[in-house]
Inverse folding.
């Protein structure tokens, strides 16, 4: 058994809210209370009743438990715990101990070794321990710990052997550490599963802390708490489920096991341990071949494909993708090509197919020197209806290199604007560093990024009055505001509890098809609105929903409803609808590649979107696709190339 302690005198869980703000932790406590009493979770988590004692706790004790749950699962000094929501820490600690949700270190000595206990000691406490054991109490922490451990191994007492001495040392340790507490492991694991089973979509996000990724801490701290700090209002919708997220505890456990594998792969990737990822790949390859074989042998299109994300097979496919990256790092290109062909047999992960075809063609053409095989891969990719537009550009470019007679169909070149901006001398010269640009803010020189200085330049020189650097946020925000009622309309198996900020199928191809008639009818109506009517619609939507949480919607993007309405009027209703039609068919894919800047002038009704590129930067294929789409629907779209002028020239 291992013991971890947090740094002495340091609280890694600060209260970010001001002292007079109502704490959202009480609302989180109510949320957890609701979740653990959900009937469907009882069959998924057999030992759920062990956590039911939480429901009878007082409100401050519930908040204390949540606070401690969100910290590292380590021994904590109770005297350092100080939360404004918990007026009597001692009483709440005792209530949690009585409910078996918290344990004191004195209650766990049988499971801890002397070495593990010593890891919880500060320097002062360790000196006190050495003095009480009549050992040398000077020197550093390591030397004092070693003195205590040698005593346990060598010194024998009058009434017993080494084991008696060890028990005596343990007793002394607990006397000095009696104020240390830790979350009980079994109830914490139960809460992990409750949160993961309730919000599995958040577990599929990468997390630097591999251990946290596999616990409910990830879901609660990274998603729910961050959202609660912004808004505590959830959208209103009907929960209509004909199919559970997890049909059995076995499905939940296999999903968690697969996520654990992915977490291991991600940890190895951070350390560039490619051989270890290859081992995981090889261990799970037979299982994945069975998964692909099952899909290839099925003629029925499954319903609710978006729920596949919460299955073992989906996460194992993600593990295979990390294995593919490792094989290429290890220059095992034959194995990599075979793995790509296997991945292409798993059709549900449609959004990766284009990049897999690109990768397969690249490996055969460049690494394996098999141009004919590469050409076959390119043609297969171009014939695949699930290949995205940006991947088609890359495949056509590859084909033009393989066949000099072939002319790519995508030949669009955006309008280009060249501007010269002063850059701070010496910035951007180090590896992975960015240039720092000198911008103007009401006559004052400020340091900023290339997008912000370009935004300022456009407003000052190109007759635009308003704008911001927001990339895809402007599109997702406008889409959410205008299409709110459809986003949260009654669709089966997309809302599973009252704590969701979006339907679960939002990032799937089914999102549009599940609501096709609603979207088509609404877009037809929207495109016919006058300027006054669409302005009024913005105001009504803003008043109805402002402050309510919604994935992809940034309420702080526009200063108010009037600014949002001015932006929409400049876009025009018909062009706004065309933007939405592009976006809604592939919300996941269309979030990226949207130009950096959105600028407009309400007086002249001008609107433009600008992709900004600094020195040495170039357009991605996704950005090219977006610039062409904008151009085709009649929205001014430009590529702005920024050239750096040395600040020395200003002297």
């Amino acid at each position: 058994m291992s013991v971890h302690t947090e740094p002495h005198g340091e609280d890694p869980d600060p209260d970010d809210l001001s002292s007079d703000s109502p704490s959202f932790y009480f609302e989180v406590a109510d949320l957890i209370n609701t979740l653990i009493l959900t009937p469907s979770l009882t069959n998924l988590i057999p030992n759920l009743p062990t956590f039911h004692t939480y429901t009878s706790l007082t409100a401050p004790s519930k908040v204390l438990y949540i606070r401690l749950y969100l910290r590292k699962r380590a021994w904590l000094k109770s005297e350092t715990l100080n939360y404004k929501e918990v007026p009597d820490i001692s009483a709440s600690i005792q209530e949690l101990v009585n409910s078996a949700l918290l344990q004191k270190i004195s209650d766990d000595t049988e499971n801890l070794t002397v070495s593990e206990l010593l890891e919880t000691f500060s320097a002062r406490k360790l000196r006190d321990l050495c003095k009480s054991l009549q050992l040398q109490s000077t020197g550093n922490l390591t030397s004092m710990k070693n003195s205590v451990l040698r005593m346990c191994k060598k010194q024998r007492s009058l009434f017993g052997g080494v084991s008696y001495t060890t028990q005596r040392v343990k007793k002394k340790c607990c006397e000095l550490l009696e104020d240390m507490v830790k979350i009980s492991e079994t109830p914490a694991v139960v809460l992990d599963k409750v949160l993961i089973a309730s919000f599995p979509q958040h577990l599929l996000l990468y997390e630097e802390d591999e251990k946290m990724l596999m616990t409910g801490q990830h879901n609660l701290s990274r998603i729910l708490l961050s959202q609660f700090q912004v808004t505590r209002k959830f959208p209103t919708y009907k929960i209509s489920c004909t199919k559970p997220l997890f049909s059995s505890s076995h499905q939940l456990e296999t999903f968690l096991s697969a996520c654990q594998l992915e977490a291991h792969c991600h940890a190895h990737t951070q350390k560039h341990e490619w051989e270890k990822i290859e081992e995981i790949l090889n261990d799970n390859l037979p299982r994945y071949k069975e998964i692909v074989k099952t899909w290839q042998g099925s003629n029925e299109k499954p319903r609710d494909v978006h729920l596949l994300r919460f299955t073992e097979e989906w996460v194992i496919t993600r593990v295979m993708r990390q294995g593919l990256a490792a094989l290429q790092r290890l220059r095992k290109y034959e194995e990599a090509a075979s793995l790509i062909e296997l991945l292409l047999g798993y059709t549900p992960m449609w959004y990766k197919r284009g990049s897999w075809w690109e990768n397969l063609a690249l490996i055969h053409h460049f690494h394996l020197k098999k141009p004919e095989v590469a050409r076959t891969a390119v043609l297969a990719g171009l014939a695949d209806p699930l290949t995205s537009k940006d991947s088609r550009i890359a495949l056509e470019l590859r084909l033009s290199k393989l066949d000099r007679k072939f002319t790519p169909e995508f030949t669009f070149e955006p309008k280009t604007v060249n501007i010269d901006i002063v850059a701070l001398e010496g910035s951007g010269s180090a590896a992975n560093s960015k240039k720092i640009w000198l911008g103007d803010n009401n006559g004052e020189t400020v340091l900023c990024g290339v997008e912000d200085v370009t935004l300022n330049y456009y407003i000052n020189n190109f007759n635009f009055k308003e704008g911001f650097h927001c990339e895809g946020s402007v599109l997702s925000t406008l889409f959410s505001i205008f299409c709110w009622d459809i986003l949260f309309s009654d669709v089966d198996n997309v809302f599973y509890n009252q704590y969701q900020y979006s339907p679960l199928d939002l990032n799937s191809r089914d999102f549009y098809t599940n609501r096709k008639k609603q979207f088509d009818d609404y877009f037809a109506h929207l495109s016919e609105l006058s300027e006054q009517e669409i302005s009024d619609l913005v105001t009504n939507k803003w008043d109805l929903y402002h402050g309510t949480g919604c994935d992809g919607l940034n309420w702080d993007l526009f200063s108010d409803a009037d600014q949002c309405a001015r932006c929409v009027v400049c876009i025009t209703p018909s062009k706004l609808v065309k933007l939405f039609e592009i976006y809604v068919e592939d919300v996941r894919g269309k979030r990226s590649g949207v130009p950096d800047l959105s600028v407009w002038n309400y007086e002249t009704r001008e609107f433009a979107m600008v992709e900004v590129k600094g020195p040495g930067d170039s357009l991605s294929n996704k950005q090219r696709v977006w610039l062409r789409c904008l151009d085709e629907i009649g929205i001014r779209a430009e590529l702005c190339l920024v050239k750096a002028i040395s600040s020395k020239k200003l002297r």
In short: Residues 202 and 223 are 7 Å apart (CA to CA). The first helix runs from residue 25 to 36. The chain is about 50% helix and 10% strand.
